[in-house]
């Protein structure tokens, strides 16, 4: 792999979304390196050395391009490491033939798996045993104070909701298909459901997930996914660990993709009252919105935008998806 294509993931082991990206890297067979960071702020490896205030984890770099948001990350990995170059795919064809349902699979993964199912699972965490500093960090992230007793009181209702979702999955698999969308191999849809249910199943309040007797199809599918991922990870090998400084130096010294791939939509820029070259602030619309990333706007398309961001180690190109993120002029800020 060329140096400009070096892949580096910034992650921590308890992050379920880190495991989602780990699984994509394994299923596609993409060699990579990792930077292990703290589960709570501060994270100088990202905020200082790269200049990225965005606080969701993971983030992933390919060369000098740094991608934020797992939806953008996994689709970028598919685009930059395609099947045509010998990598696996997360958008395999259907077994019965026909067009690949890329948009449908992405929509299912984002708006069902991650937006409807995922938010239920954190309730099952042992919040009463979390350190005060962690609770304070997550309260700031969520924009509301974490109350362990109130969260614990919601567990029975959350368990009930999870079982309703498992019943839906059981129905989807009722014709004995191997994968959710009856594809030749597991798709992003399978990956996006699996990481959530595997996480829930690892928690004390989620052990009932995909009970073999009640939900045999869902249970078999979950085990099939887990076994395949484990085999692919073993085949790929463990990623080497980098310090924040070493990773930043690799990123800063690498090349980046041309801005013309994303382009610049002047009409969109006008709607947001920005223009090419402006210093702007980009942040999620929901959690983590109080940590905007500041940079020079160099590309703005219908699905993605790119900032040039200055960190202590140098300049990188930071990518955000358009859906779910806001942008505005960064008054009083400069690179």
From TrEMBL:
InterPro entries documented for this protein: DUF7962 (IPR058268), Glutathione-S-Trfase_C_sf (IPR036282), Glutathione_S-Trfase_N (IPR004045), Thioredoxin-like_sf (IPR036249)
Organism of provenance: Crepidotus variabilis
UniProt protein name: GST N-terminal domain-containing protein
Domain GST N-terminal: 5-85
Highest classification ranks of the organism: Eukaryota, Fungi, Dikarya, Basidiomycota, Agaricomycotina
Pfam families assigned: DUF7962 (PF25907), GST_N_3 (PF13417)
